[in-house]
Specification:
The complex is a heterodimer of chains A (236) and B (387). By secondary structure, chain A is an alpha+beta fold. Chain A is 48% helix and 24% strand. Chain A is built from 7 helices and 8 strands; from the N terminus they run E-H-E-E-H-E-E-H-E-H-E-E-H-H-H. Chain B has 387 residues and is of the alpha+beta class.
């Protein structure tokens, strides 16, 4: 069924803002704008045409990515190296409501864009900042990826709205991996020790050790030698 | 306005009338001492004694400041004085055409408009450097002289006029359509106000339209403060993209993000002029070969136009619209939003769900590994305990 006015939908909005664009000389503005166009052309090429809407802002570009938060993040990360080429990009990503105005003829409106713009305002060049809602959207699609973001703090914009922001941190992902490995090892050891303890409690220590050494094919003499040697070492 | 016909003002012999304005009459005069023709601008003094002395003091101060300005783009003030209830200023007599008349007669070409604005900016820069703010830059105060020279008129006088026309609410009346937002709101005005006014003049020259129009003064004031102008290139396709940037910056509502210096504006206009000249030369040179010279432009003008109409990140509110870029084909994605399929409607309107334990184990590799480790360890522990 066709609708004349689109319902408010959710999209991940990547806002690429050129730092202090208004204050730069006009020639530089034209150069930076041309560079940004090139960066956007390269980065959006990765997304399917049905999944992105490119919007113009006076000091940058906003890209609304539909149903693909991972794609939005990849786009931002691919645009970031442009800073090294002299294009000071401040990137903000948000996941929020967007709506085509008058069936798309009058551009796009929505809180999703407004918050992304605010987030980009807080970002410094060569840094991507994401909002909590984008982090949640990313976690919804690929659980676990949210751990790769470190809290950047809470920021209040000009409209006195507070935004909890995060930035991608490769170390955070590694730290989480290490934590999970340590936790796994501890749980494994704990469970095995608990099993052994239960066995000792029910059958006695000697019976338990006989069973274990028997399964390992160690004779009583070998066991005695081994335990004596162990005691000697412990005494020392 | 003068009630009787004058024949003499100070040492100047009046030979004719050049025009009439809100403040008084402008006469053509002859200076017998130097045998030169002058323009005599008269201002009717207030009948109120206290107001009159105050006015005289300010007039003297402003005339002295204007008299100190010696620049090819600024009309020269020779002398000032008072005769009865008339204050007058003797100025250089200019044989030219007012920009207002030129704009009325026909369209001003883009290179010509840029050249005029560049010269006015140069003159303003000089005046600002000497601490004089014009406050009433408008087409009727810009005189086009022979050999493409431009002169700014009414320095100092403009300030007198503005101060003299305070309404009961304290609001200044000048020429509303060319006033800056800070002038309209009664905030302190500095040289950046002239830059805004010149931006309005340039916009009107380029687009051949009135930028801030309205049925009455309050409506014009409202538009000056709130209306975001369309990029000039959208109205006149001959305007190059870089000129859009220049005009946009000159017309910034916030003086802090406007051009901070008229010389800076003049420099940018010179760059634009150089680009225009280069483009015209390229067009005429390659016309015979039918080469599309627009391809030499670095930017897509259409994309730039829409970008210039859009607000900056800092100005985007929840109800602000961003135009769709014309450089990228977004029809397919827009179609998904305007005419969504059932799948899209479900997919695009679904808010993110919190990740539960089971989904976390199923989709998060780290949690999955931990889960398997726990299961294996539990089995091992169980086997040890009960086997």
């Amino acid at each position: 069924m066709k609708t004349t006015n689109a319902a408010a939908t959710l999209a991940s909005v990547v806002f690429l803002r050129i730092q202090e664009f208004a204050r730069r000389p006009v020639q530089e503005q034209a150069r930076l704008r041309a560079q940004l166009e090139a960066v956007v052309a390269v980065t959006v090429a990765e997304l399917a045409p049905a999944a992105r809407i490119v919007l113009d802002a006076a000091d940058g570009t906003a890209i609304a990515v539909l149903a693909d938060p991972q794609g939005a993040l990849r786009l931002a990360e691919r645009a970031l190296p442009a800073t090294a080429a002299g294009l000071p990009l401040c990137i903000g990503i948000n996941h929020g409501t967007v709506q085509m105005a008058s069936g798309g003829e009058n551009g796009m409106i929505g809180d999703g864009i407004a918050v992304a713009a605010s987030v980009a305002e807080f970002a410094s060049p060569s840094r991507v900042l994401i909002s909590r809602s984008f982090r949640d959207a990313l976690a919804d699609v690929t659980p676990g990826t949210e751990a790769g973001f470190f809290p950047a703090g809470t920021f209040t914009d000009g409209g006195l709205r507070t935004h909890e922001l995060f930035f991608p941190d490769a170390q955070a992902a590694r730290r989480r991996q290490r934590r999970l490995i340590a936790l796994g090892a501890a749980v494994v050891i704990g469970l095995v020790v608990a099993g052994a303890a239960a066995r000792v409690a029910t059958g006695g220590q000697q019976k338990f050790l006989d069973g274990v050494f028997g399964k390992l094919g160690i004779s009583a003499k070998q066991r005695e030698n081994y335990t004596r040697g162990l005691r000697e070492k412990l005494k020392f | 306005m003068a009630k009787k016909k004058l024949s003499q003002l100070g040492r100047y012999k009046i030979t004719g009338e050049l025009g009439r304005g809100a403040m008084g009459v402008v006469y053509k005069g002859q200076d017998p001492a130097l045998d030169r023709t002058v323009a005599l601008k008269t201002i009717i003094l207030s009948d109120d004694v206290a107001g009159r002395s105050d006015y005289q003091a300010r007039f003297s101060q402003e005339a002295k400041a204007a008299g100190r300005l010696n620049h090819p783009q600024i009309i020269t003030v020779y002398d000032f004085g008072q005769e009865g209830d008339l204050a007058y200023m003797a100025m250089e007599f200019l044989k030219g055409t007012e920009l207002r008349a030129r704009m009325k007669d026909g369209a001003v070409g883009v290179p010509e408009a840029v050249h005029i604005a560049e010269q006015v900016a140069e003159g303003l820069g000089y005046a600002h450097e000497h601490g004089v703010v014009h406050r009433d830059i408008k087409p009727s105060n810009i005189m086009l002289m022979p050999h493409d020279q431009v002169k700014i008129m009414d320095f100092g006088i403009a300030r007198m006029r503005a101060s003299d026309h305070k309404t009961s609410t304290g609001l200044l009346l000048g020429t509303p359509k060319y006033m800056s937002p800070e002038q309209v709101s009664g905030s302190p005005v500095d040289h950046r106000s002239d830059i805004f006014s010149l931006g309005v003049v340039l916009y009107e020259m380029l687009t051949h339209t009135k930028l801030f129009s309205g049925e009455d003064t309050p409506q014009i004031f409202h538009n000056v403060v709130n209306f975001q102008p369309t990029a000039p290139s959208r109205v006149n396709p001959e305007v190059p993209p870089m000129l859009d940037f220049v005009v946009e910056r000159a017309l910034k509502k916030d003086p802090a993000v406007r051009y901070q210096d008229a010389f800076e504006l003049a420099a940018d206009l010179r760059s634009v002029l150089a680009e225009l000249v280069h483009r015209e030369a390229a067009v005429s040179k390659k016309k015979g070969r039918e080469i599309d010279t627009t391809k030499t432009m670095k930017l897509d003008p259409e994309a730039l136009r829409s970008a210039l109409q859009a607000p900056a990140a800092g100005a985007i509110g929840s109800d602000t619209r961003l135009p769709v870029s014309l450089r990228f084909d977004c029809k397919e994605a827009i179609g998904r939003l305007t005419e969504p399929t059932r799948r899209d409607r479900r997919l695009l309107t679904r808010p993110p769900r919190p990740v539960g334990l089971l989904r976390g184990i199923a989709r998060d590799p780290g949690k999955r590994l931990l889960f398997f480790a726990i299961v294996v360890a539990a089995l091992a522990g169980g086997a040890i305990a009960f086997a």
